[in-house]
């Protein structure tokens, strides 16, 4: 298994040093590098890498800004001069944090984590064993980056039970969290697989795998209760579509 990797860091010396250290790991294939967020976004769009090593503080935009602009987040290892204490402020469940200067032992630990995570994840395959790279729609295994104030998360789509429209924002429901992201429901709907994510009404997109109960509701609509306890009304128009999909 080889991991196609991009290094994003504004310091050329830091990029070179990391590239040199990564030569020890045959499975890490450094395919490109970038010196800032805009260049990084361009390279990620172009190559669709499996892994990025990402500096947090860069001139102009931070590593977190880059992640917010991605539709689909690859695996991320942060490289940063922040100390451990400062990092506690960010609740990002990234693969790992490497403090600069990067120590070979810590890098080895991060690569080890990468393998462990990879072996846990089901791989979509195209029949001849090669993993499928979907381009347009997001799959349930894809992870998205969500930032709300100082708190950040990588969330797998299958963990998100509900998106709720709040003006130009969408509230994302996963676990006990409900952060806001700057995306409209219409924009989200275009990227989500409609077999899994259903537009129940003007304000809500639900993950069908999280439905706990379905009840008839007035005006010929339905009331869905999700496993998180939320009750969502399906509009009359969408009820017809929903019943067809569920073969009710």
What does this 3D model show about the protein?
- It is a single chain.
- The chain is α/β, with parallel strands linked by helices and 248 residues long.
- It folds into 2 domains: 3-120, Response regulator (Rossmann fold, 3-Layer(aba) Sandwich), CATH 3.40.50.2300; 158-246, LytTr DNA-binding domain (OB fold (Dihydrolipoamide Acetyltransferase, E2P)).
- Helices cover 27% and strands 30% of the residues.
- The protein contains 7 helices and 15 strands.
- The chain has a 5-stranded parallel β-sheet, sandwiched between helices. Strands 10-9-8-12-11 form a 5-stranded antiparallel β-sheet, with no helix packed on it.
- Helix 2 crosses helix 3.
- The chain starts with a strand and ends with a helix.
- Mean pLDDT is 88; it is low at 124-135.
- Strand arrangement across the biggest beta sheet: 2-1-3-4-5
Q: Bin the helical content.
A: 25-40%
Tell me, rounded to a whole number, the average pLDDT. 88
Helical element count? 7
| Order of H and E elements | EHEHEHEHEHEEEEEHEEEEEH
Brief overview, please?
Helix content is 27%, strand content 30%.
List keywords for this structure.
248 residues, alpha/beta, Rossmann fold, OB fold (Dihydrolipoamide Acetyltransferase, E2P), 2 domains, five-stranded parallel β-sheet, 30% strand
Fold blueprint:
Layout: E1 3-8, H1 12-22, E2 28-34, H2 37-47, E3 51-55, H3 63-69, E4 75-80, H4 84-87, E5 96-99, H5 104-120, E6 143-148, E7 151-156, E8 162-166, E9 169-173, E10 180-181, H6 185-191, E11 197-199, E12 204-207, E13 211-216, E14 222-226, E15 231-234, H7 236-246
Parallel strand pairs: 1-2, 1-3, 3-4, 4-5
Antiparallel strand pairs: 6-7, 8-9, 8-12, 9-10, 11-12, 13-14, 14-15
Helix pairs in contact: 2-3
